[in-house]
Structures are given as structure tokens and as C-alpha cells.
Amino acid sequence: MEPLGVEEVKGIELEILDEFVRVCSEQGIRYYLGYGTLLGAARHEGFIPWDDDIDVIMMREDYERLVDGFDRWRSSERFSVAFYRDGRSVYPFAKIVDTTTLVKEDFARKDIRTGVWIDVFPFDRVDPEDLRASKRIARLSLTRSFIVADPSVGSSLLAKAAKRIVCPIAHRLDAVKYARLIDQVARDACDRDTGYVAALVDDGYPPRPVPDRVFASAVELSFEGRALSAPVGYEELLTLHYGDWRQVPPEDRRAVHVAEAYRLPR
Fold it and tell me: Transferase as a keyword (predicted)?
């Protein structure tokens, strides 16, 4: 296998993003840049310099259309949706992957691998006063994290010790089952319009409800030379997630995603 450098991974992610945007445009599916990618577009007009992830977000209805239809609408088999429903992912949200590549994440068990990807997060309706769904997801997510974790990797001696005790038991459980449960709880969290949405599948606890006016329409932001869709209230969304997002953080607060990426032999 051919190792891939950071810039090569970014280039592949941009190709995945281009395919994703093409599908969404042709199928009338709404998407928005999200999280660090939205921050990068708003502050740097591209990747955050120390980050190599691409995140997009969608309301639940558009998200379901995408995961159900992407593999029919794709331009080639190089691109595919990885999702727990077909057993191809242990995550409770979808990834669009490049099937000609392989990624080994530093924190995950060695048997859990995927291609270079972009993350696609669904936003569901939530009641900010009702935390029951979020609490249940937090418990399920903690268990899932031990199921997929590499017990030899940890941010501290205490974390490594906890993993060595818990992981041998947790590894007997089914990560796909827990991903399914997390997504189901998120979908069923609220059956009425409260004026708020959240990415329950990945928000942690407590959740971060976002007023749905943030997503009332879309505006274009520049990202690596591309005009891409962002929520009309993107500044409010960034403030909710990052506080003073215009301020570049000091080096010791810059989160770096660690993984090994390879191009598979043809």
C-alpha cells in the first residue's frame, strides 16, 4: 500500500466533497458546511491549517434521502456511503468514503478501518428542556467508544488503565448495534416542531440545541476555491459551538486528528 501525506488526504477529501455536492445539487438535497469545515470556510476560506477533516451537516429528511440514494446516484464505485445500516460502519452517522483508500485511526481497534472520508451529520428536532434522549445517547456512546477503542492507546495513564479493564469485555459487544441504537434514539427524540435542532448522534452531553432559524436558508462561503453552502445563520452557529470563533487559538489548543492513510493497490 502507498502511504498518503496530509496534503494528499486533503486532496482526496476535496474530491469526495465535490462528488457529494454534485449529488446533492442534482437531487435537490440541502446540505451545509459544518463544524471545523464551516469554521475553516468562515475564518480561512479553506481548511483550518492544522486540521484535515471535512464535515457537512443536513436536516434529518435530507440526510435520509442521501444515505438511501447516494450509491445509486454516484458517478463511480470509487465513492460510497459507509453507514451502519449496511454493516459497513460502526459510527451512528454516515461517511462518504473513497473506496480506493484505507485509513487506520490511532484510537480505534486495528480491525476497524475505512477509506478516506467526509463526515455527514444529521440534525434532529429537539426539546431543549427534555434531556432524556441526550442522556441515553451519552450512555450508549460511552459503551460504543469502548467497543471500538484500541486499549493500548490513551491520552493518559488512567485512560489506558480504564481501557485495559473495560475493552476486553466491551469488544464482545456489537458496535453496529450500538450505532443503530444511538441513531434511533436521535430520530425519536422529539416528534414536534420546537424551533430547535441538534446533532444528537454526535453532540455529547449536554446537547447543543440550535435555533432552526439558523438553517432558514443558505448562503455561499468559499472553501478551497469552491463556493459551498453554509447556513444563513452560520455566525450564530459558530458562536454556539466555538465561542469567539474569529480568534485563532494558541498552538496548545489546536486539536489534531491522527490517522494513517494509504492508497490501496489496484
Answer: yes
